[in-house]
Amino acid sequence: MSHYDLYAIGNALVDSEYEVTDAQLQALGVEKRHMTLIDAERRAHLLAGVQGLHSRRTGGGSAGNTVVAVAQLGGKAFYSCRVADDELGAFYHQDLLANGVATNLSHMPFPEGQTGICMVMVTPDAERSMSTFLGATADIDQTSLHAKDIAKSKVYYMEGYLSASPTGLDAALKGRAIAKEAGVKLATTLSDMTMINFCRPGLEAMVGSDLDYLFCNEEEAQVWCGSKDLPTIVTHMSKLAKVVCLTRSAKGCLVIEGAQQTEVPAVKVQAIDTNGAGDMFAGAFLFAVTHGHSHAQAAALANRAAGQVVSQYGNRLTPEQLQAIRAEFEASLSA
After folding, report:
1. Domain residues for 131?
2. pTM above 0.85, yes or no
């Protein structure tokens, strides 16, 4: 019997989100709509540039957001990550526990250094631009894995951003091998155009030849395939996993299963902040499929949850919001 619905490995990052204008974004030298890795010097420069601006601090990291979504919806999740022995590390650990997520952080000492942060700049068009200082998470390795818990999970999820870290990629692939040996389903995400452009070999290793679930948005798929032609993209992406969830913003999601395609419409919302939308989609989708729902039903729940995220500032929802979305979803199935 499975102990966890989802076991994930990814970067532990504390998000600080700022509302900025396009002019401010340009003045800071931040590339719009992309995730850019930064060093300590660049971090200090950006912090000086946003001094005086109101910020929201939350637990973050792509896979971290996904496991929290699963737990808040009522699932059981485990998260392997790495933080430092500082105030942000303690904040991140407690945030996971408060949201009902089990973690390796409860069973190991924190190293010296700085916990990773992600500075998220949100412009008036709702686009998010991220500057990420990895800090301690840059050195995540196999010691963060709990092999027995991986083997007792329904799905093993690898954050695509780990393709930028040699030790992180090695750990993700070690976990992948453990999961495959135990018959656990495999899932990953393409994460960001930057990862595809600069870390593609690592992403290809995560995808492998036997992936069960792949999550990506339309722009990432276009970069991956080198084409903007949707039929071409669908043909190419269908070969990467048994189930591919291709999200298309206001157009909803295209669930690709071999030669079969299912269009699942989005919920109409006014988008003000896209930070965390893809993470939420993956979490809600994986919660649904691990609780007996079809892929189309799972995508409908995921669209609803992601739509709520983009309609407000911040990368996550509250447990109360997600429970209300789940109740609405289940009521629609029985109507």
Report:
1. 4-334
2. yes
